[in-house]
UniProtKB/TrEMBL annotation:
Protein name according to UniProt: DUF4124 domain-containing protein
Signal peptide: 1-24
Comp. bias intervals (Basic and acidic residues): 70-84
Record keyword Amino-acid biosynthesis present: no
InterPro entries in alphabetical order: DUF4124
């Protein structure tokens, strides 16, 4: 009880001095021994502990915390970067939403754009599939011709033709797989656009209804 009374008297003493220090802020803290210190400037004895700053009205205006440890500094930096990334992501999402709603007036417009994006990829797949069938047919004939050679000796030009046709088939099949993966990516992109368009349209409808 006596300790609290002393602290109260110390603060009251500071407040009584306010008229003399009305032009300045007043710094209050407790040192390592628990003694209340006051000053019109930052208190050296309390540089490693919390300091309260009183304004001209005698009310706490702000607090100065103790310096951060290295671990706290790293954590604060990580938190700051995380907040900045979240803000940037939110800004980017708003930008994409505005572009989406400006580009498409209705969901059917998205499907039209989907088909337009898929058409050239589908055409390339069909072209490569036809090429594979043609090359496989030629390869079958070339191999039959090679098998008919006497003593199993295949002419160099015929062997080169067989090798080239085999490589053409491998290349075409690889390209088909790549284009099929592109189809999946295109559909995934437009599926996300449809989903987001529905969300934004629903939100806009609810806003209007209110």
């Amino acid at each position: 009880m006596k300790k609290n009374s002393k602290s109260l008297l110390a603060v009251m003493g500071v407040l009584l001095c306010l008229p003399l220090l009305a032009h300045a802020e007043i710094y209050i803290c407790k040192d390592a021994s628990g003694k209340t210190l006051t000053s019109d400037r930052p208190i050296v004895e309390c540089q490693d502990r919390k300091i309260r700053v009183l304004g001209k009205n005698g009310m706490t205006q702000r607090e100065i915390g103790p310096p951060l440890t290295e671990e706290q500094k790293h954590q604060k930096q990580a938190d700051d970067e995380k907040r900045k990334a979240a803000v940037a992501a939110a800004d980017e999402q708003r930008r994409q939403d505005r572009a989406l709603m400006a580009r498409y007036g209705k969901e059917a417009d998205i499907e039209v754009a989907r088909q337009r994006a898929l058409e050239p990829v589908g055409e390339q797949i069909r072209r490569e599939q036809a090429s594979v069938l043609m090359s496989e047919k030629k390869l079958g004939l070339a191999r039959a011709e090679a098998a008919a050679q006497s003593k199993g000796k295949v002419p160099l030009n015929l062997q080169r033709k067989i090798d080239d046709l085999g490589q053409e088939i491998v290349d075409s099949k690889k390209l088909i797989v790549e284009r099929q993966q592109e189809v999946v990516q295109i559909n995934s992109k437009f599926d996300q656009s449809v989903k987001r368009f529905r969300e934004l349209s629903g939100a806009a409808t609810q806003t209007v209804a209110r």
